Amino acid sequence: MNHVIEAQGLTKKFQNFEAVRGIDFKIREGTCFGFLGPNGAGKTTTISMLYCYVTITEGELTILGLHPKTDERKIKSLLGIVPQDNNLDPDLTVYENLVVYARYFGISHTQSRPKIEELLRYFNLSEKKHVRITQLSGGMRRRLVLARAFIHDPHIIILDEPTTGLDPQARHLIWEKLENLKALGKTFVLTTHYMDEAERLCDELVMMDHGKILAQGTPSELILKHIGKETIEVKVPSREAQLILKHIEGLPFSYEQTEARLFIYTHDGGDVLKKIIELKEYEFVHRRSSLEDVFLKLTGRKLRE
Amino acid sequence: MISLKIFRIWQRHMIVWRKYLKEAILGTTGEPIIYLLALGYGMGHYIGDMNGLTYIQYIAPGLWLSSAMGGASAECTYGAYTRMTTQQTYNAILAAPINTHEIVGAEILFGSTRSFINCMVILIVFTFAGLVKTPLLILMPFLGLITGVFFASVAMTVTAWSKGYEFFIYYYTLFVTPSFFLSGIFFPIEHFPQWLERIALTLPLTQMVYVARELFIGKFEMFSLFRCAYVLLLGLFFFWISTKMIHKRLIK
């Protein structure tokens, strides 16, 4: 399959800090590519360079073979953007928002009308057609921003934290819609800090922190490579953790320790589990490893504010 | 660099404007009309004739144009700033194949459209009030448009630099109010001390009021074209500056 986006040594320096530090990635056509990372990792800056909202300091970037410096207009006409903040027009109704936005792409009202009706139906917004934005719920606004991004039938859709702040129902509805659209062959580029979202939607992803890519692969590749298939989470104060570690010494595992928990990562939990049961003293959970484990292992558990 | 997309953004502004039609027109034409009535009849009684005109006739052309100044200024300060910051309208537009020059161009086009409409409304009001004595006054909305281009461009420059709504106090106190009182709307500026007269003469509104007053008495001189060109060129200069500044502010 073709690569629709390629970046090499992509760097962004703001006045006094380097937000993106020379990253490389390639995004295949028809896939969903995710940028994961804690707040301030450089995800939004990276995807903003894709749609020419942030200029590139150094490095190479091509989008469908086009260069942001010279082909800004062409690139933007091929991309659909779902920004982090809903920047819908609060003075306009749902329908007007789409009419106006279509015009920005050179699509007249007569041309856009059937497409708008279709999008409103698809995103369950038909009933709210003539309602002002201020009267919509968070989930509806988000769906409208999504509908807006599809108004000109873009090749690539860029989603910056598409479901942040939504309730579970709204998130699942959006995921379903996005999955259906992906099946139609659209390429998605996504940023998120929800691991369940990334696991569900992304075919491939990179984990970023401090402007650098820490790991890259499919969700299951990343889990196998950095964590192992299974995780055993033992509730144990840190001073006693050594006891357990001593007890399971010699078995293949890696671990991570927090104040009240010990995380044991392994490809086959059976033997470790037996040993821990022998100790009889500790509460534990034995579960499949998840992207969240990879994420926390790679980016650390310190708060990001 | 600038494409017809400007009109697509302008259309967006017009849709919103239509929703607040009454408020928008009242806000910027109501004030000049009240000034006209209060000063024209009130002060006019004591002043008598001015250069062969009743006082109300003397101040009408300038107040007429002041509605153009008001319309463009309001739109390109508070309006534009809200779109740029709170509402994030510019960010939304920038995701489409449109650049910052076109966004600023559309603001100025829309600001001056409001000036044009304000002058049109006053034309209708004045016609009914019997103040319109010559067909030349049909040109007033176009003088309003030129005035609007200038004030919209200066206002956009201030908006580009503004860090909050409070910053517009500089624009209104240091520029709009002096323009209103020093550009010969209410009295001839020839009687100012020389230094003040010089300042007043450089004010674009002074030049436009001059042209308007001539139209009012049914005169149109070639030199008026130079006055209009001066104001328009200054407007284009500020358009250029504001475009640079807005670009720098939005595209990191």
Please describe what this structure looks like:
The complex is a heterodimer of chains A (305) and B (252). Chain A is of the alpha/beta class and 305 residues long. Helices cover 37% and strands 28% of the residues of chain A. Chain A is built from eleven helices and 13 strands. Chain A has a six-stranded mixed β-sheet with strand order 5-6-7-3-8-9, with helices on both faces. Chain A has a four-stranded antiparallel β-sheet with strand order 11-12-10-13, with no helix packed on it. In chain A, helix 3 packs across helix 4 and helix 8 crosses helix 11. The radius of gyration of chain A is 22 Å and the shape is elongated. Chain B is mainly α and 252 residues long. Chain B has a two-stranded antiparallel sheet. In chain B, a hairpin with a 2-residue loop joins strand 1 and strand 2. Chain B is globular, with a radius of gyration of 18 Å.
